[in-house]
Amino acid sequence: MEINNRDNNRPHYINPYLGGVLLGLLVIITVYITGRGLGASGAVKSAVVTTAEAITPAHAESNPYMSKFTGGDHSPMYNWLVFESLGIFFGGLLSGILFGRLKKIRIEKSPKITNKTRLIAALTGGILFGIGSQFGRGCSSGAALSGSSTFSLGGVIVMLVLFGTGYAIAWMFKKLWI
Amino acid sequence: MHVHELNPKKTLITVIIFVIVIIVGFLTLKKPRFTYKLDMKQSVEILHDSSLYFYPWQLADVVDNVESNVVLIDLRDKFSFGQGHIPGSENISAYDLTEENNIEHLNELKSAGITVVFYGNDQLQANGPWMWFRQTGFDNVKILLGGYNYYKAHKNRLSQTKSDKGFMCELPRYDYAKAASKKASKGVNNTVKKKKPVVVRRKKRTVTASGGC
Amino acid sequence: MGPLIPNGVITGDWDFVIALIIGIIFGFLLESSGFSSSRNIVGVFYGYNFVVLRVFFTAVIVAMVGLLYFDYFGWLDLDKIFILPTYLTPMIVGSVIMGFGFVLGGFCPGTSYTAIAIGKLDALVFTVGLFIGIFIFSETFPLFQDFYYSGYLGNVTLTDVTGIPAAWFAFAFTIIALASFWITMVIEKRVRKNITEYKF
Amino acid sequence: MNKNYIFLTILMILLAAGTLFLDNRKDNYQIKPEVLLYEIIQPTRYVTTDQVAKMIIDKDPTLELIDVRSPEEFDKFSLTNAINVPLDSIITAGSQDYFGLPGVKVVFYSNGDICADQAWVLTRRMGYKDTYVMKGGLNRWIETIIQPKEPPQEAPYTDFELYQFRKGAQIYFTGAEIESTQVKKKSSVKVRRRKKTVTASGGC
Questions:
Q1: Which of A104, B12, B180, C18 has the smallest C-beta neighbourhood within 10 Å, fewest atoms?
Q2: Domain count for chain C
């Protein structure tokens, strides 16, 4: 088989089911210890608030959304999710080193598109995801994974709609990936 | 190679560890010591059952050892018990109620069909434990109306307390509306007088029936 | 017994150490499952790689079932854990927007952090996009403040809404997930025959 | 295809199916019997009539008085802003809306304190927190707040302080500054009669 020849070059990933079972156990342990699930987008929110506060404190205070997160004893960066996200970064780094995926800076894309297109798409995607995660009260890990694991109605809604939209619109952006 | 052609050994091991943890959970699972035997609705209904209350005049037989099917349990602390208690009663302080030997003792009494009567200084002190034991399935537990204080004041004329209402602490001792607003006292006064004869007739029936509450 | 921190078994001082450790495990699992590659992730929408679906659904069913057992054993009190609040309409709209962001960007926030760690420039750009997106949201927040708080149902679970015990949902989810694993296997094999192999 | 996957699939189905057989021991909202008995034994649920009077006078927004007597009794007299939830209907869904509100202290009262205490045990079993019982009930309310007795000369200073407060409260609640002796006589006459009247409507 053609694919078999390339197996040597393929990056070594763990069995997805092993990853899934371990991730599920991690969710249980996290809930067991902290009483709440995992999350990721909250860290960026803290970063936004911190930046805004550093540049124009008065503006951050007057903004009805940001002011919800300012004004504590500590900086908004002194937050559970920020530390967790730091951990995600280092965990990824560790795994990258272990499995030999840590290489020089590169861009992953379909051969049919240019680097510029990919980066614009990534930026747009990031912006949309950022806005959407605020309305959805969490991203795919916070709302969809932890939310549905704890049987939250909102979590299940986010999971279903997020992936449903993905399937509905995937054909539009086929060129980006295949 | 497709992922489904690989051998998921590690996955299997992880899942089996997970299953073992669950099995350990089942093995170490303790049966709860107490469960509610009455649901909320039944728990409310028993409050109206006058046969679950023990009236002071019923004490006379117990004290004189005529009635042997009743055990009095004093829920006050040792000190108060030592200072004075109803003759023949046992002392289990409310704080020690759930101790294993006490529960065992109460269970024995239950299976022997002996009625257990809780009392404290007043009815209030025994009310909570009485409700709790009823709800958790001790269907032989009753509560002494008036408590020890009432007994102490009337111990020489227990049989006469049938006509006394002093132990019924839920009876209003005052005309609240009148006491609280003097201005309207005249108006209230009239209506009360009118109602009075009707009410008095009913009274005798109700008191014994409706128990302490 | 659990949850430990809300019940005061572990003091709040350990909060951030625990957060870091949990994050490291989370990141390790994401990266080693292949979530640091956007083409892996997006493969779920085109049928050539269902790794996201496998990892995600396995995690959800294991967590659901495990939490129910833990609750039964008295190790964890499910009444005390945080339930994500439900804001019906904003959540649906937000998820649609996220869906677009997902297909365009190829990451979600957690996976983009791990991809930055192994040197993916597009992930970095995606994270910058996240930052800008949340900033735009905060700045324009007064415009749709009412909408943001609309459709509030409280911190409800599926059981609260439907009255069906949580175990039935766990069971139904498990069946759906396992069935989808076998179905997607067939789809994946078929699609991969017609696709040029991609580098990771 | 590896047959371990089939094994894993079956294992996962069995695990999930197992959850269906976990009986719901917790009755989803009720507190454990042990916890209930422990709290029953503690006297912390009792509040005095003075405390209640003070909260009413201060217009404490966290106070919610629940009158567990019958509607007839409630119509004749009730404390300021009290809500009538007869003991019999305390477990109905409509009544439960009053309990468990964050930051609200629910105080039960009745003629004496038994009915209120029973209401407390029932609601506490259902898991509602921040519920209290007014010790002595309305009987003691009248004795302490509406018709306070002057402490004897040799009583400690705090008793006189309390008496001062009660006199103030008396004025607040009755709206009248009449010499108490006369009132006492009047009401004490009516008291006896009144007692009979209400007996008719049974316990609570």
A1: A104
A2: 1
